[in-house]
Amino acid sequence: MEPSFDTLCTLPLSRLRWASFWRSLFAVLLVSWCAGCATLPDNGDRQASQAFASPEQTQLGQLVQERRAQAKARSDSGFALLDSVGTAFSSRLALIDSAQRALDLQYYAIHADNSTEILLQHLRDAARRGVRVRVLLDDFNTVGKDAQVLRLAFEPGVEIRLFNPLPGSRSSLIGHMFSSIKDFDRITKRMHNKLFIADNAMGIAGGRNLGDEYFGVDEKSNFVDLDVLAAGRIVRDMSASFDRYWNDQLAYPVQKLLSAQELQDLREPAPAAQANPVGDGAKPMQMAAVGSAPAGTVTSAILLNVTATSVASPASTAMDLRQVPLTWAPSLLLVDKPGKIGPDEDEADAGDTVVDGLLRLMEQARQEVVIISPYFVPGKPMMATFAAMRAKGVRIRVLTNSLASNDAPAAHAGYTRYRKDLVRMGIELYEMRSDQEGTIGGMGSVRGLGSGSGAGGSKTGGSRASLHTKAVMIDQRMAVIGSMNLDLRSRRENSEVALLIRSAAIAQQAAKEVDATVSQGAYRVEMDRGELVWRAPHGAAFKDAHSEPEASTKLKLLVQLIKPFAPDEML
Questions:
Q1: Cα–Cα dist 521/514, whole Å
Q2: 236 and 173 together in one domain
Q3: How far is CA 154 from the centre of its chain?
Q4: pLDDT at 269 over 70
Q5: Mean of the per-residue pLDDT values of the chain
Q6: What is the model's pTM?
Q7: Does 320 fall in a domain?
Q8: Which residues are catalytic?
Q9: CA 465, CA 91: separation in Å to the nearest integer?
Q10: What is the 3-state secondary structure of 84-96?
Q11: Domain residues for 365?
């Protein structure tokens, strides 16, 4: 989920009645007004650190060298698409369990839930066997229940830093935002990068955050996503980018912002009883009792309903990295500078951005560009780029969310401003169905983490699917996969990172996933007598629709209310 205008305007409305929402909002405003603008502590004495400099001395580094020699590869970097929730989860476990010296994680959001509980247990165990663990997390979502992820910062061997933090209460997102209301420009600038690196030898990049909804086990909504497992030289570039953010002035150690006791005070009381999600034979694990943490140490325990069976289930077993097919190819890391979201005007002018570079690559296309962007708000400059490409005869296909599958209605409002012009331009426009079964990312659940439909379907427990993959394929020979959306927020406000891989095999594999989604799980948006019409794929309940399919009237009205007011760069 991306930070957007609707984070404040729409999410509370799904949980609270209108009257209750406005009363709560007024109370928060009043408290914030009386308290004034909270301030951050001094961060000048933070300790700098660097990635492990000799990956060849680790088992992972030696494995990468062996795999490259076996393949007789000329390129120094290898890649594998992680196109299912099973591989996405098990590859992360494998990196944690295989690491001997260092684990570096950089994320926009880490949610406190069942899947994260398992990952954090493995991270804690890695730290206890001597692995240095650094976690760099954007501050925006570290509130409420999700603040409990920060408990890991008080484990020996683990450091967590929050990027561009907001001062004040962490009891709720609204309170967290309004405590910095006088500095609204900084609130909107977020670190959106997503990297997962082990021993500076192997790593993962892509669009996926950490949490149940990214691993197919959330009861309400699950994201369709795509990652890349990387090995070799490109990982050292990923580590250099991580270090640059980690050592930036905007990266605050957790201990500077709140204490272990403050986290404990925020913790929700354990429920009296939990339904057993994996069978009658499993008993809940008390995480605080696992291992041998020194007296007085805060453990990484977050939940009380993770079971012994779920942690040891086959689907949560680490991937065998020796058997993963790697494609060796030339590559480049596209990454924004931390100064893009810095507080000073000189630092904010960080030069060309990831999206700028991506647009220049697209301009060089000769035949076809395939775009997957869940939040697609082109803006006038990007529309001009598309027009120039179409004038050269380049085929452009775009897969984005429908209103029904979009978790950010305000972003959809921005997209609707350009939808007719995109279709008139000859761009093939597809919108993802929220009830589809076959999609990018093989949206089955990770067994043992929750109920689901298995490895082949997108729906878990009746939940809706939402596109979250961010990728561009150019002329079936180049793929760019990362954290960026094709919108002005990614271009101007958020920091982003992406892998550019010059490989026909990788590009064509990703394009095949798009083809499968388009044929089974997406509407084709066309024009009919000057109006938009949605053509449903085979198997849908209807053939054509003349308004946003599957979306409620309330949701359609909300988009129309937002559309005239929200600026593109805020969506």
A1: 10
A2: yes
A3: 25
A4: no
A5: 82
A6: 0.85
A7: no
A8: 192, 194, 199, 468, 470, 475
A9: 22
A10: CHHHHHHHHHHHH
A11: 327-570
